[in-house]
Design brief:
It is built from no helices and eleven strands. Strands 2, 4, 5, 6, 9, 10 and 11 form a seven-stranded mixed β-sheet that branches. A four-stranded antiparallel β-sheet has the order 1-3-8-7, with no helix packed on it. A hairpin with a 4-residue loop joins strand 7 and strand 8.
Length: 122
């Protein structure tokens, strides 16, 4: 599966961005999807995941209530709506796919997009 993330940019604190991740695979609907992020000098961390069917989602505590993950299997795309952004949300955001169990660990994901940079200014 090839993944292409987009939608990053520069936004002021309190603003919103919507990230998209397009998949090349026609069997996209069989993959669980997730977003991770990596800030400068920090390890990659889990942000959100969504079951292949879209029927179950999970979020990191740091983004719960501000971010929403969704998917459109007809368009082979997963989204991350980010609201009330904070400077600490600044990071490169990666989408990832797995055909294994739905987990929040990056080791559970086999396919990764190239990342899109989100910068939140104070």
């Amino acid at each position: 599966v090839q993944l292409q993330a987009s939608g990053g940019g520069l936004v002021q604190a309190g603003g919103s961005l919507r990230l998209s991740c397009a998949a090349s695979e026609r069997t996209f609907s069989s993959y669980h999807m997730a977003w991770f992020r990596q800030a400068p000098g920090k390890e990659r961390e889990f942000v959100a995941y969504i079951r292949w069917s879209g029927g179950h989602t999970g979020y990191a505590d740091s983004v719960n209530g501000r971010f929403t993950i969704g998917r459109d299997n007809a368009k082979n795309t997963v989204y991350l709506q980010m609201n009330s952004l904070k400077p600490e949300d600044t990071a490169v955001y990666y989408c990832a796919a797995t055909s294994r169990a739905l987990v929040s660990s990056s080791t559970g994901y086999d396919y990764w997009g190239q990342g899109t940079l989100v910068t939140v200014s104070s």
